[in-house]
Structure to design on (341 residues):
C-alpha cells in the first residue's frame, strides 16, 4: 500500500523536553488499537496536533508560544474512552428504540381490545366481554349397588312382595307369543300349595310365602309359584333339593283345572332369595308326552317371564338406592316394578 512521498525534512531545532505521558492503561481486547500505522482509531472530536513552526537556528521561540512536543503520540486512553462512550450511546439508542416500538404495539393491542371491533366504544366492548365463568356444580357420583346383591337377602330386598309386583301384566307377550293371565294367589302356608315332597323342602329351608299365577295360551295352561326365603343360600338349596311340584292354580270363576293327574311339564329355578317352579299341561286333560313341544315352550316362556320380573325388582331397587334423596327406595321400586315387563 502506498502513502505518497515523505514530507521534506524540517530544519534542525533545539531539542525540547517531551511531555510526560500518562501511565498506559490496558484496554479490553475488543478495543485494543493496532499498534501504529494507518487504521488506528481516531476520535473525530479530538484536536489534531499542530505541526511545529520552523524557527531559525538559535532563535528564541515566539513570545507566548508553548514549546511544541517533539512528536505527536496518540492519547490511547482518551481514544478508548471515546470509543466506549460511542458504543454506550449506540446501545441506549437501540434499547430506547425497542422500548418505543414495544410501547406502540402494546398501545395498539390495548386500543383494539378496548375498541371491540367496528365502531365500538370501549364501554360497548366491555359490556360484551365474557365475564368470569361460574364454576360447574360438582356432584359426588353414587354408583348403584349390584342389583343381584339387593335381592339376595330380606334385609336389602324391601320392596313390597305381592302378586301385583310380581305378575302385573294381564296379557304378557313372551317372545312374540301372547298369554292370558287366568288367576293369581298368595299364601304363607308354603307346603299347602305343593305336591310330593316339595312342601317339606320348602318348609325345611324357611319358606316365607308362595306367590302363584296361571297363564293360558292355545289350550295350554302354566302355573308358576315363587317361593320366598330370607337368603339366597336357602333358595339355592331348595332348587338343588326340589322334588315333586307346585300345585296347578285353576282359573278364576271356575276356570279350567289341569295337571290334576295326567303327566305335566315341570321346571325348577332360583334367582336371589327366590325359588320358582312351573307346571304346564293341557286344559283338556291330555297328558304331556316326552316329545311334546307346545307344553314345553309354554313352561319355558312363563319361567323366563318370572325371571325377568325378579330382575326388574332388583334393578328398580338398585336405581332407587342410588338416589335416596328423592324418597323411599322401596316405594319407588314398587311403582317401577309394576310398570316394567
Amino acid at each position: 500500500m502506498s502513502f505518497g512521498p515523505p514530507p521534506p525534512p524540517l530544519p534542525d531545532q533545539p531539542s525540547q523536553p517531551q511531555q510526560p505521558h500518562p501511565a498506559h492503561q490496558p484496554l479490553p481486547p475488543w478495543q485494543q488499537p493496532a499498534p501504529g500505522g494507518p487504521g488506528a482509531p481516531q476520535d473525530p472530536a479530538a484536536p489534531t496536533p499542530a505541526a511545529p513552526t520552523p524557527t531559525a537556528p538559535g532563535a528564541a521561540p515566539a513570545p507566548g508560544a508553548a514549546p511544541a512536543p517533539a512528536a505527536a503520540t496518540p492519547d490511547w486512553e482518551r481514544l478508548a474512552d471515546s470509543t466506549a462512550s460511542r458504543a454506550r450511546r449506540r446501545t441506549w439508542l437501540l434499547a430506547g428504540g425497542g422500548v418505543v416500538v414495544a410501547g406502540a404495539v402494546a398501545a395498539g393491542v390495548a386500543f383494539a381490545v378496548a375498541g371491540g371491533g367496528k365502531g365500538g366504544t370501549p364501554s360497548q366492548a366491555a359490556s360484551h366481554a365474557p365475564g368470569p365463568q361460574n364454576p360447574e356444580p360438582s356432584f359426588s357420583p353414587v354408583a348403584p349397588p349390584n342389583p343381584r346383591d339387593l335381592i339376595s337377602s330380606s334385609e336389602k330386598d324391601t320392596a313390597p312382595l305381592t302378586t301385583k309386583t310380581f305378575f302385573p301384566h294381564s296379557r304378557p307377550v313372551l317372545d312374540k307369543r301372547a298369554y292370558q293371565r287366568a288367576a293369581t294367589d298368595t299364601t304363607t302356608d308354603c307346603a299347602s300349595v305343593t305336591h310330593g315332597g316339595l312342601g317339606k323342602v320348602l318348609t325345611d329351608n324357611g319358606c316365607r310365602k308362595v306367590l302363584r299365577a296361571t297363564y293360558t295360551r292355545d289350550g295350554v295352561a302354566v302355573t308358576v309359584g315363587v317361593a320366598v326365603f330370607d337368603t339366597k343360600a336357602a333358595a339355592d338349596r331348595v332348587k338343588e333339593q326340589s322334588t315333586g311340584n307346585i300345585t296347578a292354580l285353576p282359573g278364576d270363576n271356575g276356570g279350567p283345572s289341569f295337571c290334576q293327574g295326567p303327566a305335566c311339564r315341570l321346571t325348577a329355578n332360583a334367582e336371589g332369595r327366590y325359588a320358582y317352579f312351573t307346571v304346564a299341561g293341557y286344559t283338556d286333560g291330555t297328558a304331556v308326552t316326552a316329545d311334546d313341544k307346545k307344553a314345553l315352550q309354554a313352561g319355558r316362556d312363563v319361567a323366563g317371564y318370572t325371571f325377568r320380573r325378579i330382575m326388574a325388582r332388583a334393578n328398580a331397587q338398585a336405581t332407587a338406592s342410588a338416589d335416596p334423596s328423592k324418597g323411599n327406595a322401596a316405594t319407588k321400586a314398587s311403582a317401577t316394578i309394576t310398570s316394567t315387563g
Remarks:
- The longest strand covers residues 209-217.
